[in-house]
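Hey all, sorry for the wall of text incoming. These are the three entities for the joint prediction.
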Amino acid sequence: MIAYLIRRILYAIPILIGVNLLTFSLFFVVNTADDMARMQLGMKRVTPEAIEKWKQQHGYDKPLLFNAQAEGVSKISDTIFFQKSARMFVFDFGSSNDGRNVAREIQTRMMPSLAIALPTFLIGLLIYITFALLMTLFRATALDMLGVSLCVLLMSISGLFYIIGGQFVASKLWHWVPISGYASGLDSIKFVLLPVLIGVMGSVGASSRWYRTIFLEEIGKDYVRTARSKGLSELRVLFRHVLKNAMIPILTGVVVVIPLLFMGSLLTESFFGIPGLGSYTIDAINAQDFGVVRAMVFLGSMLYIAGLVLTDISYTIVDPRVRLQ
Amino acid sequence: MKSDPSFNQLRPLTSAPPEIGRGEFILNVERLVTRLNNGARIVDDISFSIKQGETFALLGESGCGKSMTALSLMRLLPDGIRVASGDIKLDEEDILALPEYAMRKVRGGQMAMIFQEPGLSLNPVMTVGDQIAEVLILHQQLRGKEVHPRCVELLEQVGISDASRRASEYPFQLSGGMKQRVMIAMAMAGHPKLLIADEPTTALDVTIQAQVLKLLRDTQQKTGMALLLITHDLGVVAQMAHQVGVMYAGQIIEQASREQLFARPAHPYTQKLFAALPDAERSGQPLAAIPGNVPPLGAPLAACRFAPRCDKAWALCHEQVPEWAQLENGHGVRCHLYTSQMGSEKLNLKASLSHAPPTPGGEGVGTEGRGTSLLQVENLQVHFPIRKGILQRTVGYVKAVDGVSINIPEGRTLALVGESGCGKTTVGKALLQLITPTAGSVRFAGHELIGINAGQLRKHRAGMQMIFQDPYASLNPKMRVAEILQEGMDALSIAKNSDERQRRIDELLEQVGLEKTSKWRYPHEFSGGQRQRIAIARVLAVNPNLLICDEPTSALDVSVQAQILNLLKSLQQQLGLSYLFISHNLAVVEYLAHEVYVMYLGRIVERGTVKEVLHAPKHPYTQALLSAVPRIDGQGMKTVRLPGEMPSPSHPPQGCHFHTRCAQVMAKCREVYPTETLVSTTHRVHCYLAAE
Amino acid sequence: MNQAAHVSILFYAQNALFSEFNAGVSNMPVILWTDVMIYVLLATVLTAALWIRKRPYLVLPWQRVAKDSVGMVSLLLLSLFVLVGLLDTMHYRAALPEKSNGQTVYSAEVLSVFDALATGIKSRTEKTYSAPLAAYLYAKESMETSEGKILRDYPRLRYGGAHLVDPQRELLGDVLKRTGIGALEGLLIGVLLIVVSNMLFHFFVRFRTVWSSTGREEISKDNRLPTFTRAVKNKPFKALLITALLIAMLLGITVNLAAVYHVLGTDKVGQDVLYLALKSIRTGLVIGTVTTLVMLPFALLLGIAAGYFRGWVDDVIQYIYTVLSSIPSVLLIAAAVLMMQVYIEMHPDWFETSAARADLRLLFLCLILGVTSWTGLCRLLRGETLKLRELEYIQAAQAFGVSSSRILTRHIVPNVMHIVLIAVVMDFSSLVLAEAVLSYVGVGVDPSTMSFGTLINSARLEMGREPMVWWTLAAAFGFMLVLVLAANLFADAVRDAFDPRLNRT
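and here's what came out:
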C-alpha cells in the first residue's frame, strides 16, 4: 500500500514536468515576450523602450532556457524557464500583472470557491444518486421513461440558461436572495444558496442518467439474481447489493474531481461575483494576465493528479479485491 | 484400479444413486408455458413432478429452455419473459398465484437455487458469511449472535475447512469449487424443500465436479430435500438422477426413471444423444452425429420439433405435433413412433436399438508411433514474471509451462489433458510462438522454431496451425467467410491468383461440409458447429501438417460435438494430418487420440498410448482424473477421490507437485521431484510409486 | 497565406455554383478554412455511406436506427440545421458596381448563400430593440409631430409592420391572418413535396427492378414494391411524416411573417434576431463536427496503437494523454486560445478580410477543443483494443504471420468503429454547449462571429433592463435547445443501435 502510493507519487513527477513543459512552450515559445509586451501595452504607443521596460518589470528580459552571460548555476537558473516555470513546483507562482503575489491570492480565494463547490458537489451527488436509484427501481415502467426523458431534456439545456434564468427568477422576480456578492462567515449562506442550487441543477440530467446506466448494468449481473433467489426484496437488493457494487464505477468519475473543487467554477463564480479562484481565472483571462493563467493551469493539473491518487485509495475502501500493488 | 473399456459405453446400470426414503410429491408442474413478450414460446407445455428426497434431472442441449423452466419455478424470469399459463404447486401451494411478498418467503425458504457460474453468482464486495447470514435472518429469523455460529456451521457442513476464517473472506479469495460450496451452503441455509441446481458443475473441473456432486448427494441424503438438477451431461444424470426429463426445443420429449432411460431410450433424439457420445469402442468409425442444429428458441413449429433432424421421421412427423405417449412404468415419450399406426410398424421393423457390434479397438490404437517425427519439443518453458514493489522488480515467476517435452509423429493424434490452469493451452500457444517461450527447443519438420526471426518463422507458419475453443470469438464478425479463408492464403502466399484462391475456397468449404454459397455470408449467420467448420477450413487453407486443437468441441453441444469430431477424424485420414489435441474431456480423447500426455502444474506427469494411460494409469493423478469422470454407466464413482484443488503455479509445492493432493504420498514425494520411470517403451511416468 | 490560393480546386467548383446563382455580376467565391473542413467532412460522410451500403453487417445497425421513431424525427430536425449550416458555408464576396482600371472590385464583406437568401431579414435593421412581431420601437423617443410639437412616444419601426396603417388596431388581425395563410401554404407545399418524392421513389424502385430483373433473387423473393400506404403503417415513418408536415407549416408561418415583421424582434443595434440565431447555427455545427474530425485520427491511431503494441508504445501514449487530460480542459483551452489570440493579432497582415481572421480563430478553437477532448476516446479505444487483441481471431491471424498493420486495419479498426461512432455523436451536443460557455468566458469564437455564445454574451445584461429585453436570450437558448436535444436523442438512437451489449440476440 505505502509502496504503491510512493510509486504513484513518483509517477506524478514526470507528468507534472510534462505539464510544465507544455505550458512553458505554450506561453513562451508560441509568442515571444515582445509580442506579449506589445499586447499588454496596447498596439498604439509601443516603442522599443516601453517594451524593454515592461519585460524588465515582469521578468521576461532573460533568455528562455540557457543564460550564456551568467555565471555558474545561474546559467540555468537565471532564465525564464527556471524563474517562471520550474519554480511552480515549489508553489512559487510569481506575481500577477498588477504585482500581487499569486500564491497568496490563491490562498485567500480558495475558501469562497470551496464554499460554493463543496456543497454543490455533496448535495448534487446525493440528489443524482437518489434520482438514479428511483429510476432503477421503476425500470422499464412509464415512470422510468419519464425520468429518462426529463434527464435528456435537462442535459440539453445550456448551463448558462440555468444561471441566467435562476438569477432572474430567484433574485429579480421573487427577491429571495441577492443577485450576486459574497460575505464571509455565516452571512455567506444567502449568497451561496442560489449558486449551489443552480450548480446542482446544471448537471442533474447528465449525472442521473449516467448513474442510472451504471445501476442498470449492475442489476443485470448474476449475483443480483442470486440475491433475489434468496428472497430479498427489491429495495434490499438495490441498497445492499447493487449500490455497493455500483460504487466502484461511480468512484472512478467522482473522486477525481474532489481536489479540483478548490479551483471553483468559472461560470458560477463570475456570474454571482464570488471572489473565488474561478472568477480569479476568468478575470485573468479577460485581462490577459498570463502569469495567473499559467499558475492556474499548473495548480489544476497538480490537483487532478492528487485526485487520481485519491481515486485509487478509495477503491481499496469499497472493493475488497483491490489491494494496491 | 479396475480397467474400464470406455467412458461412454451404454450398458445396463449396475449401481444406482442411493435410494433415500422417497415420499410424497413436493413439486407438481402442470402444462407450464413460458413466453417471450412477442409471443414466442420458450417453455412449451411442460409437466413433471418431483417427490421428496428425489432427484429429477432435466436434460437438454443449450437453448432448449431448461434454465427458463427453473427460473419460471422461482418466478425470477428476466424482463421480457413471463409465465403465460400452467400450474406450479410446491407442497400444495400455488406458486403462480402467490403475491410477490409471499413469493419472497418461498424463494430461499421453500425453494432455493444454485447457478452455473459460481464466480459470478456471489456478490463480489460482500463477505461470504454476510451473504449466508442474509438468508438466516430472512428465513430462519436468527438474530444477533446466533447468526455467525450458524454460518460457520453451514460452511463446515459443505466441507469448507477453517470455516470461521472463510466466513469473513470475500468470494475472490475462494476457488471456484469453494464458491459453489458456498452457494450450496447459502441455499441450504433456509432449509428448502426443493433445491434447483442449474448446471452446478459445468464451469468446474472434472475433479471438482465430482466433489460438488458428492456434496449435493450427501446433502440430499441428510435433509431429504427434492433436487431439480438441470444439466446437459449424461454422465452427471447417470450419477445423480432418479427421474429424468429430456428436453428438446422447449418441450419435454421423454420422461423416465434413470434405469429405464439408460436401458431403453425411447425417443429418437435421446437415442441419438447416447449414440453421439464419443467412446473408444467406436474410435474406428464415425460417431452417430445428429445432423443440423438445435432450433432457435421460440421457433413456431406445428410439427414434431425434432423431425428435421430425425432419421426415423416420415410425413406425419412434419405435419402434426405428437401427443404424449405413456409407455410402461411411468416411461413417457412425445413421438409419433409410439402413438400412430405407422409408427408401431416402424418400431417393429427396427425391433431394437441396433448398436453396431463394437469393433475391437480403433485402428492402430496402442501400436507404435508410425512414420517419422513431425514435431519435437524439448524442455519447453514459459515463465511469466511476477512484479512487485516501487520499481516493479521481478520477484518471481509463474511457471505456466515448466519443462515439457512432446513428440508428435506424422499422421497421429496426441492429446494433452489436465485440469484448467495446468498450462496446456499455454503449451499450444507457445508452440505457435503466439507466446514467446522462455526456454526450450521446438523442432518442426526438422527446423528449430525458437530463436529465429519473424521472417524465417513465417516460412514455417503454414505447417502448424491452431483451432480455438470458442467458435464465437475465433471468427472476425466483420469479415465474410471468403475473406476469413483468404487471410491465411494471402499472408503466406499460398494461391497464385484470385481464380485459384476462389477455387480453393470452394474446395475447402466442401471439404468441411458447408455450402459453397456460404462464402458470401458473415459469421453471425452460422451456428456454433458451422463456425467451428469455418475455423477448420481457415487453417486447412494453408495446407498444414499439424493442427493444434485447443478444446475445439468444449463449447459445443453433444450432438454437434460428434459432427466436428467426425470431421477431424476424416480429415486426418484424408490428409494425413497430425493433431495436438488439448482437452479436458477424457471421453473425446479416448475416441480421437493415439497418445495421451497428462499435465499437472506445468509438467507432464504421465505419457503413453491411449490404452496405457487411460486404461492402466500409473500416476495417482491420472487415476484420480479418470475416476472423477462421471460415466453414463454410473460407475467409477467409488475409486480414487481427489481432494482439494490445484495449487497456484506461482508457488508450486516442493518435491512432487502432486503430493499435496495425493492419497499415497510418501516422505520422499515432499522433497524431490520424481524422475521419469519407464513402464513400457511408450509409457512413462513421473512417480515414485511406479518406480518401485 | 492566401487561402483561396491554397484550395484552388474548390475555388473553381464554387465559382461554377455562384455564377448560376448571381447571374450578371460575377462574384468572387471565398473558401474559408472551416469551409474546407466542412467539405472534407461531407465527403467523408458520403464515402462512408457508400462503403456501408455494400456491407450488410454495417447496414444492420443503421436499420435499427431507422426503426427508432424518436431517432428519425431528431435526424430530420438535425438535417434542417445542417441544411442552414451548409448554405451558410458557401461563401463569396460580392462584386461592387464600380470598377477600378477595368478590374472588378469586390466588397470586403464575406457573404454566404444563406445571407443572399435571407437578404430580406438581414438588411432590414431597425434603430434599436424591438419586441417580436412589434410595429413600434421598444424605447420611447422624442418625435416631432406634423404640428411641430415634441412628443415622447414609441416610434413606428422602419420595417416591422410598416405596411399597416394603424398597427394598434390591425396588428393582431394581420399576424393571425398571415399565420393562417402561412400554415396553409406550408402544409400544401409539404404535401406536394411528399407526393413528388413518393413518385420519384416509385420510379426509382421500378427502374431498379426492371434494370436488375435478370434473375436477381432478392427482388423475386420480395417483389412487393414498397407502397406509400404500406409505409405509412410503419411507425417511425408516420412520425417522420407528421413532423415533416408540422415543420413545413412552421416554416410557412415564419416565412410569411418574416416578410413584414421581425419574428423574434431586434437587438440593440436593430439587427433581426431571427437572422442572428440562424447564422449562429453554422458556428455550432462547425464546433460540433470539425472538432471531431480533427481529433479522430489522433484518438484512433494512438488508442489502438497503445492497446495493440503495449510495452513502451503504450507507456509513451499513456504519458501523453495523462499529461493532456491532467490539465482542466477549460484552463487548457483558455491558455491556448489566449496564446492564439496574441499570435493572430501580431500578424494582422495574414488576413484579407475580417471574416477570414474570425474563421481562422474558429478553426483554432476546434483544434484546441479537439486536443483536449481526444484523450477520453483514446483511453476507451485503448481499453477495447487490449480486449480485442486477446480474442482468438486475432491470434489466428497472428498464427498465419499476418502483419501488424494488416491486423490493425482488418481486424481491430472495424471492430472498434462502433465505439468511435457512438463517441462522435455523443460528443456533438456537449461541444455545442461548450461553445456557448467558452464564448461567454471570452475564450470562444471571435466576437464578430455569430454564435449562440456571442449572442448570449451580448444579451445577458438585457435581462437587467427595465423593461426587460428577453427575446435575444430566448431565441439563442431556444435554438440551442432544439439543436442539442435533437442531437442528444439521435445520439441515443445511434448508441442503442450500435452498442453490442444492448443488441445481443
